[in-house]
Amino acid sequence: xxxxxxxxxxxxxxxxxxxxxxxxxxxxxxxxxxxxxxxxxxxxxxxxxxxxxxxxxxxxxxxxxxxxxxxxxxxxxxxxx
Length: 81
Hints:
Elements: H1 2-7, H2 11-23, H3 30-42, H4 46-58, H5 65-80
Helix pairs in contact: 3-4, 3-5
């Protein structure tokens, strides 16, 4: 669900879903964090993407290949502009 909201640039709805799920006791996994990172980059919220990346690491999740490819691709896109 978060992935689809992110792909459609519905960040506010995705964030609310995240809040609702955590209130119900569900904990995000590495894929959840990765989807948010990608969604934030899609709407040019770079600072929020990096905050989510830091939160991911603080939560004990290491970035996987997908996370790293999103970070690298987004950085490249910003550099090329």
